[in-house]
Amino acid sequence: MGEKNSDTPSPAQSALLPWAPPPLKPRLSSSSVTTASVGPTRARSSNFLIKLPSKYPRQRHVFLCGNHDLAFLCFVGTFPARPDRSTRWSDTWELYAQNEEREGWHKGEGYNEMHVQGRRWGGSVDLMKAVTDEHKKFLHDLVWVHEEDIVAIHTENDRIECWLIAMHAGLEKTKKVEERLQVLRSKDPSLHTVKELRGRMNIIGYS
């Protein structure tokens, strides 16, 4: 994290103007952020993120959903509701049902109303009950895709205006962009899995 230091943008920030935020003065050493894993401190990490908008009101904060977040929110029961408000998700099990015994799907309390991603990666019922309403809301509100209509990138000879699309694991060349964006914008709860949120070997910078 950081705080505003001056109104003079760095060369890297200038390349993204006017979209880039103000320059920041580092508050954390690089050695303290060498890994993206939250490890056993999920609650503390969530609290840190939840407080950012009020702590830095001049900044805009966008929190993207990833495959681990998706599995966790499915497990704790905060997955986006169906249009008919149904809470039963057994119809999402079919695609992976042959892996149920091998993967050791969750069969404890509430499993019969759980989305397949929650059953596949779920854990302790005590953990489910320990998640606060504030954290559940944070998980529920995570966006599957974020878009910026105009992002200006300055090259040596020109200024290019681009359409920025951000998501956890990127789009695939074989899929129509607008088609997939509609799915991601809607946070379609009927899907067995969401490829754009999953870890894939062809993603640069994935962690």
Content-based structural category: alpha+beta
Helix fraction, binned, reads 25-40%
Q: In total, how many beta strands?
A: 4
Low-confidence segments, given as residue ranges, are: 1-9, 12-21, 202-207
The number of helical segments is: 8
Q: What order do the SSEs take from the amino end to the carboxyl end, as H and E?
A: EHEHHHHHHEEH
| CA gyration radius, whole angstroms | 20 Å
**Number of structural domains:** 2
Share in β-strands: 5-15%
The rough form would be described as globular
Biased composition (Low complexity): 9-18
Region (Disordered): 1-39
InterPro entries: Metallo-depent_PP-like
Tell me what the structure shows.
This protein is an alpha+beta fold and about 210 residues long. It folds into two domains: about 1-30, no CATH class; about 60-195, no CATH class. The chain contains eight helices and four strands, in the order E-H-E-H-H-H-H-H-H-E-E-H. The protein has helices at about 10-15, 40-55, 65-75, 100-105, 115-120, 125-130, 135-140, 175-185; strands at about 1-5, 25, 145-155, 160-165. A two-stranded antiparallel ribbon has the order 1-2. A two-stranded antiparallel sheet has the order 3-4. A hairpin with a 4-residue loop joins strand 3 and strand 4 (about 160-165). InterPro entries: Metallo-depent_PP-like.
